[in-house]
Design goal:
CATH superfamily: P-loop containing nucleotide triphosphate hydrolases
Order of helices and strands: EEEHEEHEHHHEHEHEE
Oligomer: single chain
Radius of gyration: 18 Å
Shape: globular
Number of strands: 10
Bound molecules: adenosine-5'-diphosphate, magnesium ion
Largest sheet: 6 strands, mixed
Distance between the termini: 15 Å
Amino acid sequence: MNSTNSTVLRCNHIKKSFDSESDKGKLEILTDVNLSVKQSEIIAVIGSSGCGKSTLLHIMGGLDKPDSGEIWWDDKPIHKYNTDELAGLRNRNIGFVFQFHHLLPEFTAMENVMMPGLIKGTPKAEAEDRATSLLDRFGLKQRLHHRPSQLSGGEQQRVSMARALMNNPSTILADEPTGNLDEKNTDSILSLLFELREEENVSIVLITHENEIAERCDSIYTLHNGVLEQSE
Ligand SMILES: Nc1ncnc2c1ncn2[C@@H]1O[C@H](COP(=O)(O)OP(=O)(O)O)[C@@H](O)[C@H]1O
Ligand SMILES: [Mg+2]
């Protein structure tokens, strides 16, 4: 990674709590999270189950709002954005990959991948071309018209990566993308992520609970007691 690369994402003093069910108190999940991610950087976020990793990723990506704090994408203060503005930002700048692919079951692989492009207003033929080349690139040329239920777990996850890349996002936010896969598929998904960084300069925030995966990233942050600490 080039150390002069610009910062694409910055979180300042993020706080988030949820209402506790058992009493009137609050569950303080994130108390003071600070992070900056540079172009082409791959960072891992680790931490025990329930510590708030997914909550943080959702806040970074504008899927959820912090109670306080700032989130900047380039020079855009998205903590001030309304729902429509956030949806636009996500569609153009961010590719999400989740543990359970979240593909739409009634659509084919190709249609799932095209969807963010169509939402953005890409003409259908162009969206088809891009979706086809992404799926081809991910070894799914023979699976364009399969529905998610007709694909293996590893294939489903590769489709969801292709969907995340449809609009050439600056950043991929991945929430335990290999948490559900065997070693071979985990390896192929990770290799694809690292190739994408080389070829397209994407930044990646990778949530994982596996140390071996975290160690392959440029830097590792641990979320603990509501705070993010860099471990190397
Ligand atoms: N919408 C919500 N309402 C109430 N509590 C929530 C909500 N989302 C998450 N939590 C709680 O916040 C904590 C952190 O959750 P999460 O971010 O999913 O953890 P992780 O991804 O690190 O396993 C958990 O205790 C979870 O039960
Ligand atoms: Mg989680």
